[in-house]
Every structure is written in C-alpha cells, then in structure tokens.
Predict the structure of Leucine--tRNA ligase.
Amino acid sequence: MSEYDPQALQAKWQQRWEELEPFRAGEDAADTRERRYMLDMFPYPSGDLHMGHGEVFAIGDVVARYWFQRGYNVLHPIGWDSFGLPAENAAIKRNAHPAEWTYANIETQATSFRRYGISFDWSRRLHTSDPEYYRWNQWLFNRFFERGLAYRKGGLVNWCPNDQTVLANEQVVAGKCERCGADVIRRELTQWYFKITDYAERLLKDMEQLEGGWPERVLTMQRNWIGRSEGADVLFEIEGREEPVHVYTTRPDTLFGATFFVVAVDAALADEIVTDDRREEFEAYRAEVAKLSDIERLSTDKEKTGVFLGRHAINPVNGERIPVWAADYVLSDYGHGAIMAVPAHDQRDLDFALKFGLPVKVVVHTGLADPGETGEATPGEGSLVNSGPLDGLSKAEAIAKIIEILRAEGKGDASVNFRLRDWLLSRQRFWGTPIPIIHCLDCGEVPVPDDQLPVTLPDLRGEALAPKGVSPLASATDWVNVECPKCGGRAMRDTDTMDTFVDSSWYYLRYCSPGYTDGPFDVEQVRKWGPIDQYVGGVEHAVLHLLYSRFFTKVLHDMGMVDFTEPFLRLLNQGQVINGGKAMSKSLGNGVDLGQQIDAYGVDAVRLTMVFAGPPEDDIDWADVSPAASQKFLARAFRVMDDVASEPGVSFEGGDLELRKFTHRTIDEVTKLVESHRFNVAVARLMELTSAARKAIDSGPGAADPAVREAAEALAVMLSLVAPYTAEEGWERLGRTGTTVALAGWPVAEPALLVQDSVTCVVQVAGKVRDRLEVSPSISEDELRGLALGSDKVRAYLDGEPRKVIVRAPKLVNIVP
RNA sequence: GCCCCCGUAGCCCAAUGGCAGAGGCAAACCCCUUAAAAGGGUUGACGUGCGGGUUCGAAUCCCGCCGGGGGCACCA
C-alpha cells in the first residue's frame, strides 16, 4: 500500500512521455490507421495559462486521448497565435521589442502545457509571429490580390480611439471595440479589404454541412451575421438628376404606399442632390451625425432625425412625387444607401413620418387600426389596397406581380442582399504581418514578388511603437522607401499590418506540414489530415475567427489547394470558468490561478474537476466545485489499481460474474458518453466502477479475483482521458510496465456480459406503482400482461375488468382500471 | 423591442415519453481509531419555477406566465 502523491507522479510521468513521445502523429505514408484531426483553438501568449485554458484543453484532451485509445492516427498539434496588440503595448511600456515579451510568454505556456499533460504532438509547434509563418500570410494575400479578393477602398470605417487602429465589422460588438471595450468611432480612411461578401451565399449555404456538428446557436449567429434577405431593386427617378437611383426593399408589394424617400446622410448621393437653399441645413445635420458614437447613432430608441433635401423622387409605378430626405437611420453601406419609405407598414418609416408630418398611406389591409392614428406600423400580412394592379392580392402574390411589372418596364428586378460587409484587414499597428504591397506613383499597387517574401518587420522597439494614428512602420523610412518591383522607380511600402485574424484563418492547414517551404502547406499532407474532425474553443469567435476561417477555406478550395469546403466538421464550445458567479478579474480580486490550483491539488484533480463540473458547454463556477474532492476520488481509484493482487494477463473468464457485468456495462456506457461529449456523466460512471471494485476487494471476491483486475485495468484506460498521471501510475502498479496507458487500447464491452438475467418490471395501476416483478428481459407482452394481472398487490387496486392494459415489455405495465 | 437556450434536493448536476436520483459537494449519523485525520458505510424531493393542455403515463411534448443566461437590435 502506497501513498497517492500527485506531484511525484507528474515529475515521473512527464519525463517518461517526453522519452516515449506517444502522441506524435504518424507520418508514415504506409500507415493504414484511420486518421483523426483534433484541434483546440490556439492560445494567445498573454502570460501563463489561466483557468480558461485549463478547461478548454482538459476537454479537448478527452476527445484526443479517446481517439488515441481507439487506435486512430491522431493529429493533435499546438501552436501560438503570437501576433497582436498586447505584446506591442507591453513593449512600449518596457521599452522593449514585442518579440521578447511574446516568446518569453510562449515558453512559459509551453512549460505549463507539458505539466498539464495534454496529448500534443510537440514536433508541429508553430508561432504566427515567426517570419516563416507570416511569409505565407503575405503569399496568400498576393493570391487573394490576384483574384480580386483583396482590394483597397476609401470610406467610413470603424476606428478604435484606444487601440489607435481600424477594426473590422466583426470586431465591433454593440458599438464597442471587441478587444478593449472602447467606444468605436467612424473615420473616413482608405483601407485594405478581403472580399468576403463574394462568398456570402456559400458561407450561408454550406452551413447545411455543419448542421448537427456545430452548436445551433453558433450557426444562428453566423446566419444572422450574414443576414441574407430577398426583395427587389427598384429604380426611382429623382427630379433634376439624369440617372435614376436604386433602392432595395424586402417589401416591393408596398411600393404604392411609399410616401417619401430617404438617403443615408453620409452617402455621396445626399451631398450630390441637396439643393442650394437646403445645403447649409444639410451640412450642419451631417456634421452633427458625424459627432455621434456608433452607440448613440445606432440606438433604436433614439428619436428619428433628418433634413429635407429640397428634391422629389418619382414613384415608378404611379408617378407620384415624393419628397427626398436625408437621415441617419438609413445606412450608406447597405443596399444602395437609399430607401423608399412606407410609413404605414414599417415602424422606422412611421416614426420618421410622424416626427416630420409626412403622409401615411395604407396599402395592406391587415385588419388593424390605421398606423397614422395609432403610431403602430402594420408590417404583417394582408390583402393589398390602394395599389392599382395589386389590389386584392396577398403579400406573396403582390411581390411576384410587382417584380414582373418592374422587370417588364425596366424599372426594377428581384434582388438578394446581405448584411455581411467586406472584411477590413489593415491595421495601423506594428506587431503583425506587413501587407506585401508597394505603392508606386506610376504603377499603383504592386505586390511584392513571391520570391522576395517574407517582407519582415523592421526592427522597432519601445517608444517607436507608440500609437499615433498611423502605422509605426511609416517611421522606419529605410524600410518604407524601396524601388518599385515593376518599373524600378521610387516607391513606398504599404505601412499597415494585417488583422491577426488572417493568421488564424489557415493555421490549421500549416500544422499538416509545419516546416514546408514551397508554399503555406503541403497540399498532399492537407489531403491526408484535413478537415478537422473536432474543433474546441470559445463561443466568442462565433462570427470572428470561425467565419474568417470558413471564408479562407473556400478561397483555398477555389484555388485547388484543399479539397474540402468546410474546415471544422464538429465544433464544441466550452463554457467559461467563473468564480462566485462572476467572471474572474483582477479588479474584482476573485481570480483563481491555474498554477496554484495545480500546486495544491495536482494536475489530474484540476483536470477532473474541469471535466466533471457539468456539461462541457456550461460555465464552471469554481466556487461550486471541489478539486479537493476530485483528488480524493483519484486517490481512491489509485488504491483500487494498486490493490489488485492477480497477475497481468490472467484470464478474466472465471472472475466474479457480477463485477464483470458491471465493468462491461460501464465500458459500454462510458464509450457512448464520451462519443456524445457527456464527459461529466462518463466520470460519474468511472466513480461507480471504482466503488464497485472497492467493494469487491473489501467485502466481495477479494483483490485476487480476475474480475477485480479486469475492472481496474478498464478503469485505468478510461480514466487516462481525464487523469493521465494517475492512470499511468495505476497501470504500472497493475504490472503493465515499460509502456504507457495512453496507448493501451480502449476496452471493448462483451455483448454476452451486457445481457441481464432479469429486469425489474414496474406494474402501475392508473399510473401509480403498485408492484414490481423480476422477469426475463425477453419476456413476451402476453406473458407479462398475465403476470401483472395475476399479482395480488395489483388486484387489490382493481375491481372488475381493467379498461386498458399498456404493456411495454420488459420494463413496464400500466393498468387503467 | 425581437429571437434562442435554461429553471430537477441547500449546491453542482443525471434521468429526453415509462419507478424523479446515476455521480459529486455540503450536512447528519454509524463503523474503524486511545483520539483526530485518513479510510469504509448509512440517510435526502409528497413532486421537477408557476398555471393550463395532450397522453394510459409528462422533468421530458404543446400553450401562457415568472425567473436566469445569451444573441440580434435602425440592414429597409
């Protein structure tokens, strides 16, 4: 009998794993094992690992280790998402280079990961801030550029005043910077974009492949974000303007109800058509709107504002003159930046109409009161009125008919619109991938030739990195001033860096051939390993990383470099680790340190606590769980394995039948539970198995019975998914020396041992349990009915013939008196 | 405001149409012990947030509330 000492086990087995390297992915082309690709979202090296990492990686490792046990050839790599702002901010503060802070943190995390016992293939490690990684960002950028998928345009963009850089739409959450929480403002800037909108339809459609594999809420968030809608484009003449103006509407059936016309205040059209006598008022209004933060501007309960532009538009179907207004509730970058306003059937238009005394014309009879009276628009279905040829039609009929009319007259057509905007990828910061473009006065935007990549970062540090609204790269004049690759004339490098979400959009492909020098990845290796079978990470990337990565995968597919169209077949979103009902934070002083928890309870106890706390997608409140209790259980399980008195290899055949059945039933259940990601329940089953073995040793057939060994060995293997150190030591104590339990092979439940001799059948009278019968599992319905009706206990509740008898052999009979 | 998810024992959670409790925490008690710790064991719902409905049978399905969490929020 020996003590369970987690810290000693960690030291011992960590070293053994480093010698054995049990988790290296098989590279042999002749390897016929089925392959599996398991990936955890790679960490940002912000410091040491924290509790959140502890949870994700513990959960991901259950899946990876299960696959190892099943004998698959598993790819389970690790790397670091090591470009990004925190390193830059730290460098400014310490007058250092961002790389120093970054790579020191990476080493700290790597050491912690090794101690944490995650089954990584360390040979494939990568860091996105390595030139050998980011050169391929640049190479990919060039390919996107060639295909017209990377382009530069001017316009209003999201600007974070705190981080001093622009942001993509996806990185603005409720008007605030996704990173730092500052209020985002709008600025007019020329920036690089990826044309993700070209892929909107496919990004939406291909989600059908992910149905069932991804959490429904992530799919919903992406669908909402892409925001597909169907409607019509309608051409309106504007008096005094040559060209007609397009508007997009999802309700072309209400065209006869348009009583005014609104142009986005920041759209070029508004500036163009405002009449001279209205210009002063318009410009004052535009300046006022520009001052508002996104939060204020986009608030739905804000009162409508706007100005009349002095012009009229002509309704194409009835020739009515309707006034043209400018307002900030119409967005310049959606649809055509202008709308037809139908106040009777759109609440926003109605609010505007009532504020400015514009007419309200009902064209859909919904049976509800007049919106002009009530102030409540009636957007619902009904039959059309006051609409000439559409009168009497339903919404669907009217839409079909009006599109037909518009098309015939060349005044419009059916149209599809998306809420998704192009991905703004340039950033005015230092610690990222330089955009490989050279600006030449004569040749324009010239990509740096592939054979001159990577464009490495200039050596800037400390104060030189301080944000000043333009990229720090601009101050490195030696670096900036270059010859044009095309004409040899004087030219300048682009001084922006790429959004770090570019790095993470394809890293999963790089893992397939991390040292590859002829391209971002070896196409053959990606064919072998891709796509990812299981991805694990936080839900906060629902419309960020996960959307971008799907987009990249589709572009690479179109380039013929990958043969799949979706990168992540299954996605698991783990919850957060909180403490006392609140997110852990320094300011609240309620932080729990992963390293300290491990020092106090051991790696296995911490991992077990993470996995056992509840369903993986639920948050874990560390105040509700008990790593000390986890440690107790592990000690208990260890003692069971240590107490086994039979020799390894002994036949289990003659072992205690009751325990054998229990063991095999547990194997069967745990297998199903692990496969369906119900890890907390699987752990509960292992606790039961441990108790059953304990009981067999103490007050049953004894420690020498082969069934006890069978139970203990199954326990060691199954426990290895969650508590690898305890499992290894237990396995060794079981006499399985010189090997690792991680590759021992998943136990197989023998069907013969899953069969029950008898089951308890519940007999109910009017839904209440009145008797229990021990019956054969294969009993027939008729026989069971007879037994139930013959029971004295049952008959006491019956007078006369029952009205109905429901038999669900072999478990239940319900008698309706 | 709209949409989605969730409410089971003091707490974390099982049970997905068939006996409300698998597992854990906490609590109480018992065994072991000179004692304590460690270890082993025993004990818990009068009904699943509330009110209706469907069904032979509902935690589970449907409707309406209440409470919690999340997403979207001028996208025409």
